[in-house]
Amino acid sequence: MSRHAFRAMGTTVELHLDAEPADAALLAAEAEMARLERLLSRFLPTSELSRLNSGGELAAGPDLLAVVAAALDARELTAGRFDPTVHDALVAAGYDRSFELVAAGNGAPVLVGTRCGGGVAIDRAHGLIRLDPGVKLDLGGIAKGYAADRALAILAPLGPALVDAGGDVAVAGKPWPVGVETALGPLTLELSDGALATSGRDRRRWRASDGERHHLIDPATGRPAEGDLLRVTALAATTVEAEVLAKALFLAGDADRAAAEADALGIPAVLVTRDGRTVLAGGLA
User: Fold this and answer.
1) What pLDDT sits at residue 10?
2) What is the pTM of this model?
């Protein structure tokens, strides 16, 4: 088993490949994730996403088009819970630069709800993305999921493979034991040819002068989400899908509602509440 670790997308990425030789494939997967970060990060002024946010319109490459299209589909699927137009709400909450810099300092002392749900249009015939006036996009989680899926696509043809992008895990080729943090300690799930992703208020959080904040914005309020959930892990066929489902369940409002939705939709999920409960839903037992 070959393993390779590196930094990308604001987190530590680990690649595992059960094949020989593996070095060239592992380095190719790393290069692909670095390339996508250069295109999709809102913190890099030269990225395609930053240029779109700055100009309001861009003749975009295929990757930005694909991720924005997936984000808009997710907004419709989740009735607005997953929303790529939360950029300004994140900035208002203090997440205005890469997280390691945010965590090192204080955010703004006053936080007001910021409008979300802005208009975004894709002209596929001309490869254009247009934003309504005042609208900017954040693609953080879904871009990381897209990059993880692309890395797995490079590795999987060579043998059983696993991509762990800061807890968002994509696997192929054989059953893999994957640990999920719960209130009672790690829970090991067996994951085969699929992915899981986790959304939580305990990962990217920081102190502002008027209290603690986190990065999961509720588009209905434009503020960091309230509720009794600490984190949600969802399983799906791809990491992009798992990212969307985990965030949508987290924003359901409370653990009981999220569990009921996961059960009704057949979404395998692990819910951890702020008071220390762990709830298995969507067929997990």
Assistant:
1) 87
2) 0.92
